[in-house]
């Protein structure tokens, strides 16, 4: 019994020592074995690993592609038009030993601010050398690739690689939006005024052409009417002259009746004429008693 009581604690200690000397690395990780803070082994393949208990420790790093979201950054392109740029990057640890020496015990949490500073510096440098139109156009893809390549070269000292860089947003600063909006509205109002002026000018030309057409049409009609009226008067005078030539007495009688009709209408002024006037020749009776 005494022997069993001694063996059980010893066995437990041995098992604990064996368990503490084994560590597992899965396919999403890379591991470093440290002895008194110095790297003595690197395990990048998934599986079981061994270390000396109590003397050595294992530090694991994520082997996947990691995100890096930066704060919006204000940059000034070559045309001095300030922009607020919101970018993000994707990165991965490729050299865990160099990464450990660069960031120490802080690991990924300490690496992110350093990578963000590198990314912001490259964003300012690349976008500061082009016009704002290039940042807002399809050329932005080339600019993002330049930022990625330059940031990748600087980040290699950390034992990481910048996989990709993307610009999510590039807008004017908030304080410039109102001024930009007012400038755009003034430009649109100017264009609208130009269109209205051109429309009024075109309408004036159409009205002038229409008025000219009316005057020409009326003039032509008046001329034609005067010609027809003149021809009719000439025919009428010719008929009168022919009739006068055939029977002067009848023509004089007809003219007198026309004069009576025009002068003796209702509402005309009173006529004071001598009864012996020639105007009444055809109203007199042939019999003096009547």
What features would you highlight for this structure?
single chain, 290 residues, alpha+beta, Tetrahydropterin Synthase, Chain A, 4-stranded antiparallel sheet
Q: How many domain regions?
A: 3
The CATH architecture designation of the largest domain is 2-Layer Sandwich
Strand fraction equals 15-25%
Helix-strand string: HEEEEEEEEHHHHEHH
Classified in CATH, the superfamily of the largest domain is Band 7 domain
Query: What's the total count of β strands?
Result: 9
Question: What structural category do the secondary elements indicate?
Answer: alpha+beta
Poorly predicted segments: none
Helix content: 40-55%
Globally, the shape reads rod-shaped
Span from first to last CA?
Answer: 188 Å
Using the coordinates above, name the CATH class of the largest domain.
Alpha Beta
Can you walk me through this structure?
Strands 6, 7, 8 and 9 form a four-stranded antiparallel β-sheet that branches. The chain has a three-stranded antiparallel β-sheet with strand order 3-2-5, with no helix packed on it. It contains seven helices and nine strands, in the order H-E-E-E-E-E-E-E-E-H-H-H-H-E-H-H. It has three domains: 2-62, no CATH class; 66-172, Tetrahydropterin Synthase, Chain A (2-Layer Sandwich); 247-283, no CATH class. Helix 2 (96-103) crosses helix 3, helix 3 packs across helix 5 and helix 6 (174-246) packs across helix 7. The longest helix has 73 residues, at 174-246. With 290 residues, the chain is α+β, with helices and mostly antiparallel strands. Strand 2 (29-35) and strand 3 form a beta hairpin.
């Amino acid at each position: 019994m005494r022997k069993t009581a001694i063996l059980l604690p010893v066995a437990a200690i041995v098992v604990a020592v064996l368990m503490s000397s084994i560590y597992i690395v899965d396919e999403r990780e890379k591991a470093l074995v440290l002895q008194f803070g110095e790297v003595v082994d690197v395990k990048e393949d998934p599986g079981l690993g061994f270390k000396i208990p109590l003397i050595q420790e294992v530090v694991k790093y994520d082997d996947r592609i990691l995100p890096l979201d930066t704060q919006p950054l204000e940059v000034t392109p070559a045309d001095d038009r300030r922009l607020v740029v919101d970018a993000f990057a994707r990165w991965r640890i490729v050299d865990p030993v160099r990464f450990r020496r660069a960031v120490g015990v802080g690991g990924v949490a300490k690496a992110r601010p350093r990578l963000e500073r590198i990314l912001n510096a490259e964003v300012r440098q690349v976008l500061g050398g082009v016009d704002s139109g290039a940042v807002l156009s399809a050329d932005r893809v080339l600019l993002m690739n330049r930022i990625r390549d330059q940031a990748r070269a600087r980040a290699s000292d950390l034992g990481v690689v910048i996989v990709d860089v993307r610009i999510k947003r590039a807008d004017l600063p908030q304080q410039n939006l109102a001024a930009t909006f007012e400038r755009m509205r003034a430009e649109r109002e100017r264009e609208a005024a130009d269109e209205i002026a051109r429309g009024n000018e075109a309408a004036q030309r159409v009205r002038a052409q229409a008025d000219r057409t009316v005057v020409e049409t009326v003039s032509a009609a008046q001329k034609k009417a005067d010609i027809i009226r003149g021809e009719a008067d000439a025919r009428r005078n010719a008929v009168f002259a022919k009739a006068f030539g055939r029977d002067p007495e009848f023509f004089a009688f007809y003219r007198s009746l026309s004069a009576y009709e025009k002068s003796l209408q209702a509402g005309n002024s009173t006529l004071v004429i001598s009864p012996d006037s020639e105007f009444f020749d055809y109203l007199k009776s042939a019999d003096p008693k009547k």
